[in-house]
Write a structure and sequence with these properties.
Porin
């Protein structure tokens, strides 16, 4: 997903649409088209906030994506039970719902949160599955502190097929 300008949003909507077209007639090595779309919406009431996000990435047309354009996915809040970039394919359909509870408001730090996520993703034409597609569900629990240096997360993720991961992350996931 794009690098949003907000760390722990409490309201608003953001969307990003990108179309890529590579053409050998313009000097590229391969002909291909790729679509990338993401959106997220934040709502809050009191110390509670909810963030819904979707992301779609896929090849368009009949030409295959070159190896360097394959989509790598996985990691904290991006199918949290999987390692960062563990799932690789040429299409992605992903959605997540994140709940944050503010346990400390702005003060010395910019806030502290307890959070949980529910994530669902489908990678198409994956290089590491038997049937070429892989659907995964994942959840995460975490504590986060919004520091002047950026957010600090300590969390755990669990996904289908017994995948688990622990995270200590400084910066935006």
């Amino acid at each position: 997903m794009p690098d949003w300008t907000w760390v722990f949003p409490r309201s608003g909507l953001a969307a990003d649409l990108q179309l890529y077209s590579s053409r050998t007639t313009l000097g590229a090595d391969n002909n291909y088209n790729k679509l990338s779309f993401s959106a997220q919406k934040a709502l809050a009431r009191g110390p509670h906030s909810l963030l819904a996000a979707i992301e779609v990435q896929r090849k368009m047309g009949g030409n295959e994506l070159p190896d360097d354009e394959f989509i790598a996915f996985g990691g904290f809040l991006k199918l949290s039970g999987y390692r960062t970039g563990e799932l690789v394919g040429n299409s992605l359909h992903f959605g997540r719902l994140v709940y944050n509870y503010r346990i400390a408001g702005p003060g010395l730090l910019d806030g502290a949160y307890l959070g949980a996520s529910a994530e669902l993703g489908r990678m198409g034409d994956t290089i590491n599955s038997v049937n070429g597609q892989q659907t995964a569900r994942s959840n995460a629990l975490y504590i986060a502190i919004d520091t002047p240096l950026g957010p600090l997360y300590l969390g755990a993720g669990r996904a289908t097929k017994g995948k688990n991961a622990l995270y200590l992350l400084i910066g935006k996931p």
